[in-house]
Write a structure and sequence with these properties.
- Strands 1-11-10-9-2-5-6 form a 7-stranded mixed beta sheet, with helices on both faces. A two-stranded antiparallel sheet has the order 3-4. The protein has a two-stranded antiparallel ribbon with strand order 7-8.
- It is of the alpha/beta class.
- It is globular, with a radius of gyration of 18 Å.
- Strand 3 and strand 4 form a beta hairpin.
- It has a domain of about 200 residues: Rossmann fold (3-Layer(aba) Sandwich).
- Helix 1 crosses helix 10, helix 3 runs antiparallel to helix 4 and helix 5 packs across helix 7.
- It contains 10 helices and 11 strands.
- The longest helix is centred in the middle third of the chain and has 21 residues.
């Protein structure tokens, strides 16, 4: 497949063999959500995240979309600019999320509007993602979403429920919103999770750790070079990293090769990941 890059085929085969010997009882999956589980482009339109639906479809106050777009135009180029230092990108993402959460509060975001956004036709599962989620559930493999979602835990839960893919094996680590009695967003719990600080959001600090701590063969799935930091602090035996390179392929491919084992370009499908999983039980 022309959109699949296996960085080191010999190393890949060695890792794959070790995963098979260990068996599925030794596996857990750490995954990003936006633009990883979901398509990056829908009908030719770039969909950065579920939160973009609020901006593009005219939710909230009359001036919300304009103000959100100003923030997007300012910070989005910094998010994907791998020529910047890690600290420069981390500082920019922290500022973006704090500014945008303040804007959401000022614009009157409610839990009901988050649910509405998750049902939009503008957000769709990536091709093959349904098979991926079902396989993990059917084989009792824990799946941990570690997401910087700008609409918090509720957005991922609502989206998976709406698509009938929220299974008992699924755990979500994400920004956690606080709502008042009327369901209005009033604040966000610390620490704020953004794309560049997943190395600081240690899985050991969450209840799901008890389910994965003895499963020492780890599969990482993400769309940013920073997503590999999801495994920081976890003592694993074997690690395989799948990365979706959705855009700026020529500019970023070498950077992705430095951190991922398998790269899926051009907003591709889960086919290669599903192939890896099927091999484990073949």
């Amino acid at each position: 497949m022309s959109n699949i890059v296996i960085v080191d085929p010999e190393k890949f085969e060695e890792i794959r063999a070790k995963f098979k010997v260990g068996g599925i009882e030794q596996i857990h999956v750490l995954s990003d959500f936006d633009r990883t589980l979901t398509q990056s482009y829908v009908r030719g339109i770039r969909i950065p995240a579920v939160i973009s639906v609020l901006r593009e479809e005219g939710y909230l106050t009359a001036d919300y979309s304009e103000k959100a777009k100003i923030l997007f135009d300012k910070y989005a180029p910094l998010e994907i600019n791998l020529q910047l230092s890690r600290e420069e990108r981390k500082s920019a993402m922290e500022s973006w999320w704090r500014d945008h959460f303040a804007l959401l509060i000022a614009s009157g975001l409610t839990r009901a509007e988050i649910e509405r956004a998750c049902k939009s036709s503008g957000v769709v599962l990536r091709q093959g993602a349904s098979e991926f989620l079902h396989w993990l559930d059917q084989n009792n493999v824990p799946l941990v979403f570690l997401s910087a979602s700008g609409l918090g835990i509720e957005s991922i839960k609502f989206f998976l429920e709406w698509n009938e893919h929220l299974f008992n094996n699924t755990h979500i680590i994400c920004n956690d919103f606080i709502f008042d009695e009327e369901g209005k967003f009033i604040s966000v719990k610390e620490p704020i999770v953004h794309i560049c600080n997943k190395d600081e959001t240690l899985i050991q600090n969450f209840p799901c750790y008890s389910e994965v701590k003895d499963r020492r063969n780890v599969i990482i799935v993400g769309d940013s070079v920073d997503d590999v930091d999801m495994v920081v602090g976890f003592e694993y035996d074997n690690l395989i990293k799948f990365g979706f390179l959705n855009e700026k392929k020529e500019e970023n491919l070498e950077k992705y090769k430095e951190v991922f084992d398998v790269i899926i370009t051009d907003d591709g499908s889960f086919a290669e990941i599903n192939k890896f999983l099927q091999y484990l039980i073949a």
